[in-house]
């Protein structure tokens, strides 16, 4: 698996640990780590879950894509969990918010677009 990085992004490969025991650690995470990291790759399930939980505790929205039983914790912890691929585990699909049939990241973009559209239309209907 290759990391999907651009010139202006950083990735974390799982060799780090964040534990928010005090407000200083949360502030350091918000200022130094969160603005630069956009993807985590080749990390064990515990580190991925810890990072997703840290993002949520710091007040960020977090999306997670996965397809196996190792991804279940993160899929359920994230604000939006995407189970991707035709070989996706049924357990991962049950823990996710959205199940996509292919493993194409363009599908994630389309799912977010359609989800926003449905949300805005439901809001308009309720207001009416």
Task: Give descriptors for this structure.
128 residues, alpha/beta, Rossmann fold, 3-stranded parallel beta sheet, two-stranded parallel ribbon, globular, disordered N terminus
Measure the end-to-end span.
48 Å
Order of helices and strands: EHEHEHEHEH
Instruction: Specify the CATH class.
Output: Alpha Beta
The gross shape turns out to be globular
> Beta fraction of the residues?
5-15%
Number of domains: 1
Notes on the structure:
A three-stranded parallel β-sheet has the order 3-4-5. It has one domain (10-103): HAD superfamily/HAD-like (Rossmann fold), CATH 3.40.50. It has helices spanning 23-33, 45-57, 72-77, 90-95, 105-127; strands at 10-12, 37-40, 63-66, 80-84, 98-100. The longest helix is centred in the C-terminal third of the chain and has 23 residues, at 105-127. It contains five helices and five strands. It is an alpha/beta fold and 128 residues long.
Structure described in brief:
This protein has 128 residues and is α/β, with parallel strands linked by helices. The protein contains 5 helices and 5 strands; from the N terminus they run βαβαβαβαβα.
Furnish the topology, listing elements before pairings.
Blueprint: E1 10-12, H1 23-33, E2 37-40, H2 45-57, E3 63-66, H3 72-77, E4 80-84, H4 90-95, E5 98-100, H5 105-127
Parallel strand pairs: 1-2, 3-4, 4-5
């Amino acid at each position: 698996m290759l990391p999907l990085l651009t010139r202006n992004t950083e990735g974390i490969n799982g060799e780090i640990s964040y534990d928010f025991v005090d407000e200083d650690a949360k502030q350091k995470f918000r200022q130094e780590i969160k603005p630069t990291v956009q993807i985590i790759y080749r990390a064990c399930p515990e580190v991925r879950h810890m990072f997703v939980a840290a993002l949520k505790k710091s007040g960020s929205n977090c999306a997670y894509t996965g397809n196996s039983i190792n991804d279940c914790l993160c899929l359920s912890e994230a604000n939006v969990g995407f189970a991707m691929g035709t070989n996706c585990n049924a357990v991962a699909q049950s823990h996710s918010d959205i199940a996509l049939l292919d493993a194409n990241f363009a599908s994630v973009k389309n799912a977010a677009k359609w989800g926003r559209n449905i949300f805005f239309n439901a809001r308009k209907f309720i207001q009416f």
